[in-house]
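debug: dumping io for the single-chain case to check the tokenizer round-trip. Nothing else runs in this session.
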Amino acid sequence: MSARGIGRSYSICVRAHTDVWCVCTHTPRRGRRQIHGRDEARMFAQAQKTVLITGASSGIGLATALAAAQAGWLTVATMRDPGKADALREAAAEAGVTDRIQVKRLDVTDPDSVAACLDEVIAEHGRLNAVVNNAGAGQVGTIEQSTVADVRAAMEVNFFGVVEVTRAALPHLRASHGRVLTVTSVGGVVGQPFNEAYCAAKFAVEGFMESLAPVAATVGVSVTVVEPGAVASEFVASQGLDIPALTEAAGPYGPALQAYIDRTMRSFGNAQTPAQAAAPIIEALTADRPAFRVQASDWARDFAGTKLADLDGSAVQSLTGTWVS
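debug: decoded output
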């Protein structure tokens, strides 16, 4: 097994003694020295990278936490309600990575919660190498029949929560020359019917991160956005939508909303699994030089490409117009 020392590589062998573990380091110039007990634990802690993931109780967040731990990262899996961590703990136990996953409470809409969580991470682990902004919430509706409060709520979770976590983490990421990864959506590239507030928030995240990326790079921090398409997870179910009531209450927008819902439910039949969506996140987490923008599937790449090549907006309008008719 190998670990990286300061300015040179060490070859490390670990052998069990009756009551302690011994780490023997071999270097060509200085020979062998032994490290016991706390010194060994400190050495391994310094060699292991730490990632904090928001919204890790289910879906993409859970799959990303599990995959990061399997990739060797000390994974701080955060969620608003740690009482919902059973699924993650069971998956971690099955995968044999329980010792690399730590569950903590973090509500991205509460600055005090964000600060407290990050303080604990630094106090306990001494460093933070990466943040994965994954927490999010959907909001289905059109503005005439929504309230500004509905829009603000969507922005708080999906945009301002990302801003708050990123702001609080940056001093620690500067120290480690770490990285910020943010799970946005193809809805952050292409505006989608009846997702006005959600897409507005994700567009804002994309603009925020695209603007931050070159600035953060000057202090050694890389920034990446990951854009999934449809993912078969609890994200849709967690919105608790009563579809018949929703379409009935939509009044003049009812037929268009029903057409949109029918089309969306069909698209989720071919959705990625959370594990498939997590794979490009882990690739970006571990890559030497991750791209700024990463799509989570071939479909997402084609869909985002439609917008990025659509200077006058006609191609997107023609496409999404078919979703509501």
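debug: round-trip ok. Confidence is low (pLDDT under 50) at residues 1-46.
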